[in-house]
Amino acid sequence: MTKADSTIRLTVAQAIVRYLMNQFIEIDSVEMRICGGGFGIFGHGNVPCLGEALYPVRDELPLYRGQNEQSMGFAAAGYAKYHLRRRFMFCTASAGPGTANLLTAAALAHTNRLPMLMLCGDTFLTRLPDPVLQQIEHFGNPALGLNDAFKAVTRYWDRITHPAQVIQSLPAALATMLDPADCGPAFLGLPQDVQGWAWDYPEAFFARRVHRIRRQSPDAEEVAEAAAALKAAKRPMIIAGGGVQYSGAVAELTAFAEAHGIPVVETIAGRANMLATHSLNTGPVGVTGSDSANAIASEADVILAVGTRLQDFTTGSWSAFAQDARLIGVNVGRHDAMKHLSLPVVGDAKLALAALGAALEGYKAPEGWTTKAQELRRAWDATVEANVAHGNRPNSYAQAIGVVNALCDTRDRILTAAGGLPSELAANWRTLGIGTVDIEYGFSCMGYEIAGGWGARIAQSEVEPEQDTVVLVGDGSYLMMNSDIYSAVLTQKKLIVIVLDNGGFAVINKLQNNTGQDSFNNLIVDCPTVPEPFAVDFEAHARSMGADSVTVANPAELGEAFKSAKASDKTTVIVMQVDPYEGWTTGGHAWWEVGTPEVSESASVRGKHAELEAERARQRRGV
Length: 623
Fold this sequence. Notes:
Blueprint: E1 7-11, H1 12-21, E2 23-27, E3 30-33, E4 35-40, H2 47-54, E5 63-65, H3 69-82, E6 88-93, H4 97-100, H5 103-111, E7 116-122, E8 156-159, H6 166-178, E9 185-191, E10 198-202, E11 209-211, H7 220-231, E12 236-240, H8 242-246, H9 250-260, E13 264-266, E14 281-284, H10 291-299, E15 302-306, H11 312-315, E16 326-331, H12 334-337, E17 343-346, H13 349-359, H14 367-388, H15 397-407, E18 413-417, H16 421-428, E19 437-440, H17 448-463, E20 469-474, H18 475-480, H19 484-491, E21 496-501, H20 506-514, H21 538-544, E22 548-552, H22 555-567, E23 572-577, H23 603-615
Parallel strand pairs: 2-11, 4-5, 4-6, 6-7, 7-9, 8-9, 12-13, 12-15, 13-14, 15-16, 16-17, 18-19, 18-20, 20-21, 21-23, 22-23
Antiparallel strand pairs: 1-10, 2-3
Helix pairs in contact: 1-2, 3-5, 3-17, 7-13, 9-13, 10-14, 14-15, 15-16, 15-22
């Protein structure tokens, strides 16, 4: 028997683990395991077999014990973002509610095109013991179960029904997670009996393999058509999305913009594509943007959108751009490249920008246009300075952001999600280092902050252990999901968590008021079912989970506490109250479409509805 014909008898769970152990990727000339480990909570649906398979490799493939399956998924997403989708973590959950808890995290990863492997328990394939504990029964379709719900929120879904299936399914799942265009979460349902079934697997299946991310070259005719449109532009603009970083095309984007004098605006996902000090960085664009970027966007005649899916917060619900502006979509994903009748350039951003640059040789944007963008950016910088200044006025998100920004190192990672903080951070943060900002606003998922920070810190400790991961979180998100403070303390993955307490869901209260409604059920004091509102002692709560913790009264005290936290090797939680009404960033907002009542007894609601509908005239209709 040749080596190619030799086999090894393994269970399904053992085969999955052995395969993952032998898949590597080359990053900056260094080979490392693609799967950095996993997050797991064991139960009857995964501990007897998958747990047994993971135990012998616990040092090489570390398994972090989470506190909640949803937060495990968020941590895996934060890990993948840090590694620019080139590495991933798996999540394992037991059958039933444990697996159900991963649905939200899978949706977040799917929306953000992030790799995450879910290895989840399932009901018995034989059905002999049915119905089993935690099984959802469908009387007319016994094959339908909870795990089928993941089909809507994954890029790859399969249920392992025979040991041999692993040979096809696992490489297909990995290929999906590594594909630039189709990247997203992969789900493998593992029936409890099948996990332990054995089979004679070919040893060649487990051979060490080094993967590389595919770079798709753009079509020459698409490049030529896009270049012709850019050459005719009098007021060109570049939108730099998160795909610029995933492609490793930051240097190419900067060189392209400099060669042709084109102003660059950033999406939320692409918020750290350029340093704040770069002369062509015109600022963040869209609903959570800047006056400078939105002014340029409203006048641009040709818009080169690179690595962005053009979400409504980027486009201002498609009101931020001139009706006759021509869009060029540079994206590895055809679906994103062709949005709103864009001229598509389907391909890797690094290669596409190089090809476009060659085709545009000699072209330069009119000097007056570039100068205008720079003047507008300087004016916005002055606005930011005013936003973050503190003194005799109420505490605000912007002030806290300014304090942290002034004290961070260039490679510290700043992270937030949902609520009002993404808007405030996008508008007021001055980028210190490329790729150092993670604003989770793709799925706008409350609860991502601390869990995602933990996952990011695990990744950061592999590469830049001397740097810090800084989490900004509101009181609402903290109360929704905070247990990974404990996880960070247990695993000695230091976080600096800043809790900004505004007494509830203040940004939704603001939206409620801005649409003509009275405050209702968002701020704790406005909840009719709360007889006696009181503030949570976040300092004591964080300390109970093993973190150092302190409450500060103002931004000056926040600065001192932040310095101490940076000097410490322990997870630290800093709490500061902020005003729910004052201090919001009022400039830089593009129009955003929200549903409002057409009929109401309230005159203010009717008036706001009329205002919204009047603004709709600026909304593009897909042309």
